[in-house]
Amino acid sequence: MIDLHYWTTPNGHKITMFLEETGLPYRIFPVKIGAGEQFKPSFLKISPNNRIPAMVDNEPAGGGAPISIFESGAILLYLAEKTGNFLPKDLRGRTETIQWLFWQMANLGPMLGQNHHFRTYAAEKLTYAINRYVNETNRLYGVLDKRLADRAFVAGDYSIADMASYPWIVPYERQGQNLDDFPHLKRWFEAIRARPATVRAYEKAKAINTQATMSDEAKKILFGQTAASVAAAAR
Ligand SMILES: N[C@@H](CCC(=O)N[C@@H](CS)C(=O)NCC(=O)O)C(=O)O
């Protein structure tokens, strides 16, 4: 059994998308990040960066003690290796997939996250910061669109590289983007959106989090963090 410590955000959806594809048995432990549950000592033990998702595999290959993992890219890679799915076995296919997985982790996630922050959440609307991240989002959409111009998926067949990127494209309107400007990306997006496993993953999220907006209290918890926040949690 897999224990998934999760909240209903893009990085959380990556993992439910994978698990729903494979049918691997799992249970969800919701971590309400707007309520500060990511600072619970029991969660910090498996996710020292106080971020979701984190996962515990109670039945790792070869037996032994459970294995815990944080960082969504590391979790996807672990699950792909565990199940033998969604990561090619040949050297070239595997390298391509891991390369695009890292591209998502280092670019698409962090930059679009800043876009959400400055465009939607920040109380002060800073034109420079908004333009910077909306433009960078636009550039990254362009990179993905070009990559998808002559292939169905990011790297070979549907893989963990696609599962990593898709949830970040879902809020494209909120990121100030128009999918019609990126026809290959749009075709890829619609194909993944229609997959039964994707539909199930997003339905699960809706059932777990019924609150659509972020409260001022949640903003304080999420956007006021310093090293002292983690130190205080350990006391
Ligand atoms: N690079 C990390 C990023 C994880 C991340 O930023 N998670 C957010 C939700 S999408 C979170 O847990 N935020 C809680 C907080 O900011 O305290 C990953 O991909 O797992």
Q: Your description of this structure?
A:
The chain is α+β, with helices and mostly antiparallel strands and 235 residues long. The chain is 57% helix and 8% strand. The two termini are 31 Å apart. The structure holds glutathione (GSH). Glutathione (GSH) is lined by residues 9-11, 33, 38, 50-53, 71-72, 109, 222.
- Determine the structural class based on helices, strands and strand pairing: alpha+beta
Q: Stretches where pLDDT falls below 50 for ≥5 residues? A: none
Ligands bound, unique? glutathione
Individual helix count: 10
Give the tally of β-strands: 4
What percentage of residues falls in helices of 4 or more residues? Answer: 55-70%
Give the terminus-to-terminus CA distance: 31 Å
Read across the widest sheet, the strand sequence of neighbours is 2-1-3-4
**For the residues shown, what is the average pLDDT?**
96
Topology pattern, helix = H, strand = E:
EHEHEEHHHHHHHH
Major sheet attributes: 4 strands, mixed
What Rg is obtained from the alpha carbons, in whole angstroms? 18 Å
Beta-strand residue fraction:
5-15%
Shape: globular
